Amino acid sequence: MNDVNKAMAVFHSHIGGKLLNVVPMLLLFSLGFVLGMTSDSKFPNFYLSSVASSPSPAPLPPQNPQVGLARFLEPPSVMHNMTDEELLWLASMTPKVRSTPYHRAPKVAFLFLARGDLPLRPLWEKFFAGHEGLYSIYVHTDPSYTGSPPEDSVFYGRMIPSQKTMWGDMSLVAAERRLLANALLDLSNERFVMLSESCIPLYDFPTVHAVLTGSNTSFVDSFVNHDSEVRYNPFFADRSNITLAQWRKGAQWFEMDRALAREVVSDDTYFPAFREYCAAQPSCLMDEHYIPTLLSLIGWRHNANRTLTYADWRIGEVHPQTYGRDDVTEDLIRKIRGGAGSGRNCTYNDGANGTCYLFARKFAHDALEPLFRLAPKVMGFG
């Protein structure tokens, strides 16, 4: 019995004591398991706070959604923070594959070069009404302009990042290139129309869209004008090898296709020379020479050498005739549509066509009311 007592004493001293230490741990573990089966509201506060402070496991990375071609072709926002250099570089890109793997209606980009408000905006809104998806609008205003069309207007949110312009200066050409570049970012834009705040449409939208998208040429004034040779300077020959024989003149209000628009925005050979010249020559009037001369320099053949925007220069001033409220009549609009005073051949795709002009300028602010009244009867919209 003494031996048994000794064995029990050894068990208690070496093993029994350790079991007593383990028992509380087992009880705590059991308590935690039971509490885990209940709601979080029954957890002790100290336990919940320790859980909340512990780092959560990293979430699994989300699966990248598939982005198809349709998403890629969505028109980009007109607001961005690109510099002109970045914008022109991006807009100059073109796919090498000639055929397109998608089908979309060709759009006409309407580029408005304005000081601020568009006083004839209600007339243009009637013109665009019901033809969504067939046009894009881009507006370049003075950077100081803080106004905005109403939210229900097609012009709302269409002002691009702009810079200051001056009459007769190369800053106007820079604004034209800026408008073209923004419009080129929308791959559905196939034709590009430069307009001012004093321009009006002479026909309804379907007619304008059909004439422009159906043409195999651009419509840019680019002609030899001996009276304008006084504006040529040997500086151009020294700076960029532009000769007098290559010198051209024309109205800045153009209608061009996508291929020519890319040529204009990607020109980094001749544009710097014009800009440098105008920096030392206030009112250099190069807005009438840069694009017409560029077409001559690059040998552009797909051009009708005429504009589709009418202006009456017969008064012999530095600005064309301005039409006010009392000037706007049915007879005036019909004469302009018929090519009054153009003195040019209004052929279309190498064939006879009666459409000499699609747009006209300059119309004053107070001409809106009679224009609005004549639009349904004469222009075919409204």
From TrEMBL:
It is found in: Membrane. GO terms for molecular function: glycosyltransferase activity. Keywords: Glycoprotein, Glycosyltransferase, Membrane, Transferase, Transmembrane, Transmembrane helix. It is a single-pass type II membrane protein. InterPro entries: BC10-like, Glyco_trans_14. One of its GO terms (cellular component) is membrane. Pfam families: Branch (PF02485). The chain crosses the membrane at residues 20-38. This is Core-2/I-branching beta-1,6-N-acetylglucosaminyltransferase family protein. It comes from Miscanthus lutarioriparius.
